[in-house]
Amino acid sequence: MKWEQTIIFFAFICCNTLIVSAQNITVDDTKTVQQLVEKLVNSACANFTNFSVSGDIYTSGYNSYGEFTKNGSSFPLEDGIVLSTWSSKNSIGPFVRNQGQGSTSWLGDADLNKALNITTTINATSLEFDFIPLTSFLSFNYIFASNEYQDDFPCRFSDGFAFLIKEKGGSANYQNLAVIPASTTPVSSTSIHQAISFTDSFGNLKSCPAKNENYFGSSNTSPTNTSPINYAGQTIVMNAQTNVVVGKTYHIKLVISDDVTKDYDSAVFLQAGSFSPKIDLGPDRLITNNPICFGDRYTIDTQLSPAYIYKWFKDSSLTPISGETFPSYNAVDSGTYKVEVDLGAGCIATGTIKIEFAPEIKLNDATLIKCVTKLSDTAFFDLTKAEATIKNNNPSLAKIDYFETQTGTILSKPILNPVSFPKTTSNDVTVFAKLTSKTYGCIETAKITLKTMVSTPSALPLTPPVVNDFSGDGNSVQLIPPDTGGSYEFSLDGTNYQVSPLFTNLAIGNYTAYIRDLNNCEYLTYLVDILDYPQFFTPNGDGYNDIWKIKIFDLFPKATITIFDRYGKLLKQLDSKNSGWDGTYIGNEMPATDYWFNLNSGDGKIIRGHFSLKR
């Protein structure tokens, strides 16, 4: 509230003259406190006692609280009770700009000060009572309306409302339920409003940004206003709720006040039946927020006594689910589930929850085969090689953990080193891969069967390899597997196998190549020779590098080598029996320079190159 040094022209609905229209709400301020509580509660699902009300005692013949009805107007609530900071009858619309009324002797409320985190409440109206709930959930609907929703007042003044609850007789403080959803911010004219931009009569711009604007319902200050209530603005229908313990005694205090001064009043409209008997079935489990994993059962539990009468419903069906008359229900598919519980004495409580199931995680079981010399050999398996098969090209699957055993759905004995898991028996061994969905956190399990097979020779025809030698550090061999569509692994020593058939950076020498079928452990084998020539030699008689020759050339009886000088003169011809050149021609030492050679393998392969003679 505030005092503005501004001349305000208005047509004020005074306390003694009321204009009632079919487009406006009606207010009856003659009801007793018990009648107000009964109107608000309208439920057999709680016991209410110790009613009290306080408010305006300074305006003769009028109360700051009462009952209201929609009266055919556009007001969102059908009926209920109103608590205000002036005569409750002044709440009847339409809105007329006025400074309001009140008294400086009409004090504020200490509990509301604490709830709003201010010290300046004035003209407070409160309704208090005790209640014992028969259900575990408390909920109510309300609209906060205020004449502070004018000019720049929402930037400065916090008229506000609190719904306070605490266990009776305990030491706990009040909990305020009238807060911005998903926060602890109290509902007031400063916490819910549109963006403010106002130029006062002196030309000063006063402004502040919007706050929680999505909860602001409407501004009623336009010249063509037909608001059914006499307030400058109002929130949307707000909901406050909390869990309570069945059978405990609670104290409730509903309280509203002005801030700072008695002017520019406010009200809270509480919907009749706001204390509707609800059962908290927990938060919805939606595909966008913590769905149930495919194949799981989700137990919806009322947590109430089995002595009550239960009916369970799915989606919009009016027919109860057959045979389901218990406090809990196991849901196995998506839908909106509702329970009705007859608590006796005319109290029927309801609860709803929406459940959605995540998509099925489709995995493939996998088999890994290790080839061994004999079945008693210990074989080491890289379990991660089964990952692609198991995931079935599903990018939503993230982490994989491996386990040795599974009992029911319980996995045990985690495998700490899955890239080298020992299999010590000749029998097949099954291990388990647990995969977790990145999107939903759901878990699915696949089997990995580990087999060992004895390697045996294959009768398939052999295709010669592609040998690229005489390349220095670039020597390579490309092994050619049989064209059977099988899966193969490759080795040049029979011990160390690789997936690729290409072997690079090979040194000069003899190799025994293996091509092994991963499905049946049959293998093909043949010899591979890698040749290369020295890039230079030094025939100086020191016993080191005095002869230019190609290693293991003597193993190729059909091959010949011819050596030429730079002019093409034939200097030496070599074969498997005479496989080296000492750097002479007809007994004469040849000069230090480059020389060229041709190697004819005898089977159509020709190699040409050059080397240096150094002295």
What does this structure look like?
The structure is a single chain. The chain folds into five domains: 246 residues, no CATH class; 58 residues, no CATH class; 83 residues; 75 residues, Sandwich (Immunoglobulin-like), CATH 2.60.40.1080; 78 residues, Immunoglobulin-like (Sandwich), CATH 2.60.40. The protein is mainly beta. 3% of the residues lie in helices and 41% in strands. The N terminus is likely disordered. The chain contains three helices and 44 strands. A hairpin with a 7-residue loop joins β29 and β30. The radius of gyration is 46 Å and the shape is elongated. The strands form twelve sheets. Strands 1, 3, 4, 6, 11, 12, 13 and 15 form an eight-stranded antiparallel sheet that branches. Strands 2-5-14-7-8 form a five-stranded antiparallel sheet. The protein has a five-stranded mixed sheet with strand order 21-27-26-23-24. This is T9SS type B sorting domain-containing protein. It comes from Flavobacterium soyangense. Keywords: Signal.
SSE blueprint:
Layout: E1 26-28, H1 33-41, E2 46-54, E3 65-69, E4 79-84, H2 110-116, E5 121-133, E6 137-146, E7 160-167, E8 175-176, E9 196-199, E10 205-208, E11 216-219, E12 233-235, E13 238-243, E14 250-259, E15 266-271, E16 298-301, E17 309-314, E18 328-331, E19 335-344, E20 347-355, E21 366-372, E22 379-381, H3 387-391, E23 397-407, E24 410-414, E25 421-423, E26 429-437, E27 443-454, E28 456-457, E29 463-468, E30 476-480, E31 488-491, E32 497-498, E33 502-503, E34 509-517, E35 522-530, E36 536-537, E37 548-549, E38 560-564, E39 570-574, E40 580-581, E41 584-585, E42 588-589, E43 594-600, E44 606-613
Parallel strand pairs: 21-27, 28-35, 36-44
Antiparallel strand pairs: 1-3, 2-5, 3-4, 4-15, 5-14, 6-12, 6-13, 6-15, 7-8, 7-14, 9-10, 11-12, 16-18, 17-19, 19-20, 22-25, 23-24, 23-26, 26-27, 29-30, 30-33, 31-32, 31-34, 34-35, 37-40, 38-39, 38-43, 41-42, 43-44
